[in-house]
Design a protein that fits this description.
The chain is of the alpha/beta class and 181 residues long. The chain is built from 5 helices and 8 strands. It has a single domain, classed as Rossmann fold (3-Layer(aba) Sandwich), CATH 3.40.50.2020.
Length: 181
């Protein structure tokens, strides 16, 4: 198996369900979900099944076509009538992975400029590595389903052949299970 982590849609669904229980147990009550595209779209939609809140999508570009980071994240798409939708609200910001933290940090700063009540962050994977950016001090709630080594993560929505991807995801699960025994 290569040095990538493969995850299936079932893995994502189970992780999001577990995260929804953590959010609910924390007593954080989001008014809206903000999904960072493109990786946060599917986890956000799954989360809506468990925490029925409206989803707003934002597009932030940090990686180029060659999967290399750019100097700074850039806003590609943002929320229409943002002040009305975010001011005084509890926001749950979702992305698939906390890698360098640049995208999350950039998005949090933008969201904070609209004076929400509180913002919590939710990710499927947090890479255990030194981050290139910090969260603003106003951020106190952070939910991650998995803490993983700094390896490339292959998500099912990026797969060209989902059957092959699922086979690799099964191999990843077995390898990780063996590593914990």
């Amino acid at each position: 198996m290569d040095d990538k982590i493969y995850v299936s849609y079932n893995d994502i669904h189970s992780a999001v369900k577990r995260l929804a229980l953590l959010v609910t147990a924390s007593e954080f009550k989001p008014d809206v979900i903000v999904a960072i595209g493109s990786g946060g779209f599917i986890p956000a939609r799954i989360l809506k099944t468990f925490i029925n809140r409206p989803i707003y999508a934002v597009g932030i570009s940090y990686y180029g076509i060659d999967n290399k980071p750019t100097e700074l994240p850039q806003k590609i798409q943002w929320i229409d009538e943002v002040q009305q939708k975010l001011t005084g609200k509890n926001i749950l910001l979702i992305d698939e992975v906390d890698d360098t933290r640049m995208t999350l940090s950039y998005c949090l700063e933008e969201l904070l400029s609209h004076h929400p009540q509180e913002i919590a962050v939710l990710v499927i994977h947090n890479k255990k590595k030194r981050k290139q950016a910090a969260f603003p001090p106003e951020i106190h709630r952070y939910f991650a389903a998995f803490e993983v080594e700094d390896r490339w993560i292959r998500y099912p929505w990026d797969a060209e052949c989902i059957e092959d991807h699922d086979l690799m995801a099964e191999k990843t699960r077995k390898a990780m299970k063996e590593d914990t025994q």
